[in-house]
Amino acid sequence: MHMTQDKIRKYKVMIVFGTRPEAIKMAPVVKVFQEIPEVECKVAVTAQHREMLDQVLALFQIIPDYDLDLMKHGQTLADITSKVLTGMSEIFVQDRPDIVLVQGDTTTTFATALAAFYQKIKVGHIEAGLRTGDKYSPWPEEINRKLTGVLTDLHFAPTEVSKNNLLHEGVLSSTIYVTGNTVIDALLATVKEDFIFESSELQTVLEKERDKRLILMTTHRRENWGEPMRQIYQALKTVLEEFEDVYVVFPMHKNPMVRQVVNEVLGEQERVYLIEPMDYEPFVNLQAKAYLILSDSGGIQEEAPSLGKPVLVVRDTTERPEAVSAGTVELVGTNYDSVLQGLRTLLSDMQRYNRMSAAVNPFGDGYASQKIAEIVLNNK
């Protein structure tokens, strides 16, 4: 008796991404699907970001099956969209996957979903349902994620808030699954207790200051340039004078506007270590060594709670309200008094500190990728 073709044909899953943040969030998904015997998993990258993408592929040991290698200096959004649409269409015609998985809100994500739709291939959208409600903020991401949502068959929402955003837009509840965010899976696979930093400078600082509490700081947002940043750094300077058992490590954004203000306020300050921007692996391991984090980054608001690190967010708004509700982050704005107050409280009030560091991460438990794989296979 011979088996029919259908019985032995593997279910074909293609995972597509193009930038460093997508690669970090998709790496654990790739790993899970590669382990499933009845699945043929392929990876396609557009390389919308080249160097930063390659770093993550190397870290997670992922070798793409297809690489569009699109990165060109000075290309417009229209260039990227049309190149991804054409390039991915050719791959889909040739490979015919059963489902295409995309992540988040990049131009790669939207154009790939559209290419899959044109070939009548099912689309699964990971990290579905994030919204600010403002078409131009973030631009073009808000529209990329909305357009991708319209083309999606299986919506993998990180939280209940994201699910409700989709329901509000009329998405069928039977197609939405709350899975947590795969960024937590990636984080927990990357943080090591005995991690040694390649930068001997940083390793030396950590050993020298090992009896002190580390404040990890990152600021890069355009809306904080200039005076807001000056106020944040001034508050930090005051804290260093008041608390002698504290030191600061600050991976500085490359932008000269940021660096100028940092150097003016903190350049000569003792116990402040200004370093170059870091790759993903050392950076999350540095987060794990921090006492608290002062930042305007979105990703850190998702990651730090899994490491038990309170985050003071130097912004007036966040598209991650779940973190504020859960008590893992606190919005302190950007003026001197409120930033100073936030830092003072966390450094001196142990009850408050313990409450924030013990709060449960609303973005997931580290098993999002496995949940996504099970849902995909149950919906074949």
TrEMBL record:
InterPro entries found in the cross-reference section: UDP_GlcNAc_Epimerase_2_dom, WecB-like
Source superkingdom: Bacteria
Record keywords: Isomerase
Keyword Isomerase attached: yes
SUPFAM superfamilies (alphabetical): UDP-Glycosyltransferase/glycogen phosphorylase
Catalytic activity, EC: 5.1.3.14
Stretch forming the signal peptide: none
Record bears the keyword Secreted: no
Enzyme class, first EC level, given as a word: isomerase
Location of the UDP-N-acetylglucosamine 2-epimerase domain: 34-376
GO molecular function: UDP-N-acetylglucosamine 2-epimerase activity
PANTHER family membership: UDP-N-ACETYLGLUCOSAMINE 2-EPIMERASE
Family per similarity comment: Belongs to the UDP-N-acetylglucosamine 2-epimerase family.
Protein name in the entry: UDP-N-acetylglucosamine 2-epimerase (non-hydrolyzing)
